Queue: 2 jobs
Job 1
Amino acid sequence: MTDDRARPPHRGLVRRFKVPTRLVHWSLSVFFILLLLTGLTNFVPELKTIHIGGARLFAWAHVALGFAMVAVAAVALLALNRSRSLRDDMDALTRNGPDDTRWLRHQLARLIRRGGSEPPVAKFNAGQKLNALLSAAATAGLLGTGVILGINYITKRVFSTVFVADVFPLHTWLALAFIPVLLGHLYLALINPSTREALRGMTSGSVRRDWARRHHPGWTPGED
């Protein structure tokens, strides 16, 4: 198996993510956004009432996408067992240490206009780790409540009306609460100049070496 830290062909780039990590990220992301968009149609009466073949179009699509997302999540867990590079990325993303606390304190100091040098950052900074934790928690909660609602959409014989009535608002509020996190992630990936390079790592797999040295000095491969 090829070493995850192998140098890419371009001397100015370093390999950040291999194919398994990128596939898992984009598969989950695409389904999550589609689910969010179809779910938000509940708040738009004109879209909510569109019917095809006697079924509400977006409600049906939301349920179908939800069960597909469960399958994608299951495949992602299987991939975690089989892919060393994916396991390594997951380990780096979930490992916490003193540098993460120092990084968060530094970011808070920047917000209140205080100086100080940024602590060393490895492959992921504390903000990325927090985003991953919140995303995983939201995904688990939404899938768990969504499966209940999806089954109830297909048949009313499994869960009681009272139980479903309790689950539905929880599902909705979980989705709404996660929207600011998603928007912040999209801003950093697509708009913010200093972090936009990270998107290249999740599309092509590589990032600029100078960017990696500046933002992830404790990780940058190929420096020997």
Job 2
Amino acid sequence: MSGKEGAGKAAEAARAARRNRYVQRLIEDEDLRENILAAYAAARSAYGRMHNGKPATKALFEDRKLQRELTEAAKALRDASASLGEKPQKKKRRKGGGRTVLLVVLAGVLALVLSEGLRSKVLDLLFGAEEEFDYSSTTTPSQPAPAATESASASAS
């Protein structure tokens, strides 16, 4: 096999891998990669514990660490499998709810600033209605000062 044939086969294999949805998912989904790595690490550790010189059946039934590692590997594989079965999650766009609230608040402030009737209604609701009253004195005015009336009649003549 020449170098050109090997390069052509490698390029074709790369194109096929890019078209594979599972490979694409593995490239794009960070959680899937983490689950696969966790499963691999737990399975490798369990494999090491199984081959430490004890018979496999004895290790499976008596070694609690081995049982925990196998459980972790199974859980991580189950999560990875479920993640592969789901559609890829796209980033959620915000619907602009905050923008709408800001626009409503701004419109309300402008209405209060520009409308005197609305402003008085809001103030009446907040602080109670304004009481209007007429002032009437309970004392009677005293006699006008004589000096003031004499000077006024002198200037009139």
